[in-house]
């Protein structure tokens, strides 16, 4: 697999839609799907059916359902089996909640979520494979065992991970159908106007640099992306904002805010690592550089997450404090702007 192909494997689940031909013979749905999807197994298909992730004519069906001519078949599957060996590693993980079906972690900035090109060890998945080495899901050969969503290496915050196949399938469906509630806190250059709004624009691979994303406002490329934002603190040259994701594209918040000319503070991939607002006075310039040193990453934190428990159906909500580097930099900006009054 090439670097570009690996970079393009962005979704943590796959969605398929098939229409049975008019001459389709009556056939069990797991067999029907098995012949149409490469690199899958009957077990994966049956697990998806048991979780309610296979729909025929918009109604969930069991693995023994028999497909009839004209049926519209839809399926949401977790990612396919991996092609690389994943090594369990005894790495500390900040677990904020755990039960028999899932675990919620507060990821530290700097940790890659799952192995990919250039990062095959030291990731959250390597750590989880150690912590849950006795669980079948983490012995199954899945590419990203338990993962239903992710955040960037240098973004901190809340993630939920499934501990079994049923939870994995049901959580994947919630993220696919956008019934989760995800809120982020970001420090951005300038102050977005209006102070509360929605950014829309397809997000896809940058035409010139495949490692980053870009917005395609005309919808010619990429996938639908919707970010709601709200300015919660105006600090003149920078602002603290809350972002709520309606979709979950790669780098979505980062590229959307850069697109409206308010990149994340110190985001070196989307232009936020330059002094974009303020004066040319050397004292101010040094102040900003000191902030960059304290916060050597994009200023983004996945603060909260809400979803329905995959087994009980109860709505669960989790919240986390801002990490120290973001707290310190926001406090420094507060002090700087207040001293000018």
CATH architecture of the largest domain: 2-Layer Sandwich
Shape, principal axes of CA atoms: elongated
- Label the structural class: alpha+beta
What's the rounded overall pLDDT mean? 89
Low-pLDDT segments: 1-10
Strand content: 25-35%
Measured distance between first and last alpha carbons: 57 Å
What characterizes the major β-sheet? 9 strands, mixed
Describe the 3D structure.
Helix content is 23%, strand content 28%. The protein has eight helices and 17 strands. It has helices at 3-7, 29-34, 42-50, 124-131, 165-176, 252-259, 282-294, 324-339, and strands at 13-19, 27-28, 54-56, 59-60, 66-67, 72-78, 95-98, 102-107, 156-162, 181-189, 196-200, 202-205, 213-216, 226-235, 238-245, 300-308, 315-319. The chain has three domains: 3-78, RNA-binding S4 domain (Structural Genomics Hypothetical 15.5 Kd Protein In mrcA-pckA Intergenic Region, Chain A, Roll), CATH 3.10.290.10; 95-180, 2-Layer Sandwich (Pseudouridine synthase), CATH 3.30.2350; 182-305 and 316-339, Pseudouridine synthase (2-Layer Sandwich). The chain is elongated, with a radius of gyration of 22 Å. With 341 residues, the chain is an alpha+beta fold.
